[in-house]
Write a structure and sequence with these properties.
Elements lengths: L5 E5 L4 H12 L3 E6 L20 E4 L5 H8 L4 E4 L6 H4 L3 H21 L4 E7 L8 E2 L5 E2 L6 H5 L9 E2 L13 H19 L4 E6 L1 E3 L12 H10 L5 E2 L6 E2 L1 E3 H13 L7 E4 L5 E2 H11 L7 E2 L16 H7 L7 H12 L8 H10 L5
Parallel strand pairs: 1-2, 1-4, 2-3, 4-5, 5-9, 9-14, 10-13, 11-16
Antiparallel strand pairs: 6-7, 6-8, 12-15
C-alpha cells in the first residue's frame, strides 16, 4: 500500500467522518467523502461548514450503485461510516435502518468485489453486545440475557448479584435492537467479503462517542449531544431508569485516531476491536457533569422510564486495540467536556427530545 493514500469515507460529512477527515489530512492522506446529507443530521442538506475544504465531497447515497462506483474511483482504502444511528428510532423505522445500514453495506461490498481496494475499515457499535460482561461475587464471569420486561415494569433495574466489568470482544453478542442487528450485519458482511476477496478489513466497535459537530437537533444522536440540546434550551436532561446505568464515553478525536491506525497498520486485519475510553461513568453523572461544565444549574430529570432495546451496563475493554494497533485513549472525559462546552457556546439546538420520547411512548417502546 502507498504511504499516502486516497481514502473514501462514507458518511464522511457527519460527526465522526469529519473528524476522521481532519485526522487523515493531517497524516498526509487525501480524503473523499460520500454523504447523502440527510436532513435529520444536516439541516438544509448543505455541505457543513466544519468539513475541511480539502475534502472532496460527493453527495450521494450508499444504496445507489452508480454513486458508490463514482466514489470508489481511484481510491486506495475505504472507511465505511455511513449508517442510520439510534436504538429507539430503529425500533419503528425498521425498513429504513435495514436499508440504509445492511443494504447500503451490501451495495458497497458488491462494488468492492468488482474493484478491490487496499484496506476497508467499518464502524460497528457496542450495541451488538447487548448487556456487557458481568462477574459474580465469587469471581465467575457471566454473560447475562436481556432483562425481562416484567422486571423493568417493577422498576428493578439492576441484574441481581452481578457486578459489571469491562467488556471484551469475546463476549457473546445479544442483538437487542434493530440498530444493533444492522451494525452486526455491517461488521460481519465486511469481514466475510474481505476474507473472500483478499481485502484486508477491520471492524471497530465504537462505544459512546461524543464531541464537537454532533447534530444537536437530532433526538436520536449520542446521549451527550441530546443532553447538550436540552441544556442549551434551559431544560433538564431526560435520563431513563434511575440514571445509574454505566457507559463508556470516548472522545471523537480518540475514535478518529483509532480509524487512522486501523488504516495504516496491519496488526488488526481480519479482527473486530473495541474502541472506547476503557473507563465507565453513570449516565446521571455525565448529565450532572455536563451541566456544570456549561454552567447551567439544572439537575437531570430521572424519568423512571425504560426503553425497548436499552441495556443496563456496558463499557469497553480496549486491550485488543492497544495490542494490535497501539491505540491508547488520550482524552479524559472532563477535558473532552470542556472542549464540547466551548463549542456549544456558538450553537443553537432545536429541542426535539420530548417529541421523540412521546413517539416511543405512543408505540409502547418507552414505558
Amino acid at each position: 500500500m502507498p504511504t499516502t493514500r486516497s481514502v473514501l469515507v462514507t458518511g464522511g460529512a457527519g460527526f465522526i467522518g469529519s473528524h476522521l477527515a481532519d485526522e487523515l489530512l493531517a497524516r498526509g492522506h487525501r480524503v473523499r467523502a460520500l454523504d447523502n446529507l440527510t436532513p435529520q443530521v444536516h439541516e438544509g442538506g448543505l455541505r457543513p461548514d466544519y468539513l475541511a475544504a480539502d475534502v472532496e465531497l460527493q453527495v450521494g447515497d450508499v444504496r445507489d450503485r452508480d454513486a458508490i462506483r463514482r466514489a470508489l474511483a481511484g481510491v486506495d482504502a475505504v472507511v465505511h461510516l455511513a449508517a442510520r444511528v439510534g436504538v429507539g428510532q430503529s425500533m419503528y423505522e425498521i425498513a429504513e435502518y435495514t436499508a440504509s445500514n445492511s443494504l447500503g453495506t451490501a451495495v458497497l461490498l458488491e462494488a468492492l468485489a468488482e474493484a478491490p481496494v487496499g484496506k476497508v475499515v467499518v464502524a460497528s457499535s457496542m450495541s451488538v453486545y447487548g448487556e456487557g460482561l458481568y462477574r459474580t461475587a465469587d469471581g465467575r464471569e457471566v454473560e447475562p440475557e436481556e432483562r425481562p420486561r416484567e422486571q423493568l415494569e417493577r422498576d428493578e433495574w439492576e441484574l441481581p448479584g452481578l457486578v459489571p466489568v469491562p467488556t471484551p470482544e469475546t463476549k457473546r453478542l445479544t442483538l437487542s435492537s434493530i440498530y444493533a442487528l444492522t451494525k452486526y450485519q455491517q461488521e460481519r458482511a465486511v469481514l466475510v467479503c474481505g476474507a473472500a476477496y483478499d481485502i484486508p478489513t477491520v471492524a471497530l466497535r465504537l462505544f459512546n462517542t461524543y464531541g464537537t459537530r454532533q447534530a444537536l437537533s437530532n433526538p436520536y444522536t449520542g446521549v451527550l449531544a441530546i443532553f447538550a440540546s436540552r441544556l442549551l434550551n434551559d431544560r433538564p436532561p431526560r435520563v431513563y431508569e434511575d440514571g445509574l446505568q454505566r457507559r463508556d464515553f470516548v472522545a471523537v478525536s480518540d475514535v478518529a485516531r483509532a480509524f487512522a491506525l486501523a488504516l495504516e497498520r496491519d496488526g488488526a486485519d481480519g479482527l473486530v476491536l473495541n474502541v472506547g475510553s476503557g473507563t465507565s461513568v453513570t449516565v446521571r453523572e455525565v448529565a450532572v457533569q455536563l451541566a456544570a461544565t456549561v454552567r447551567k444549574e439544572i439537575e437531570p430529570e430521572l424519568t423512571g422510564e425504560y426503553r425497548a432495546g436499552d441495556i443496563r451496563h456496558c463499557f469497553a475493554d480496549v486491550t485488543l486495540a492497544r495490542e494490535t494497533l497501539g491505540y491508547e485513549p488520550q482524552v479524559a472525559l472532563a477535558d473532552g467536556m470542556e472542549e464540547l462546552a466551548a463549542w456549544l457556546e456558538g450553537q443553537v439546538a432545536v429541542d426535539r427530545v420530548d417529541a421523540a420520547a412521546g413517539e416511543l411512548q405512543r408505540r409502547g417502546l418507552a414505558i
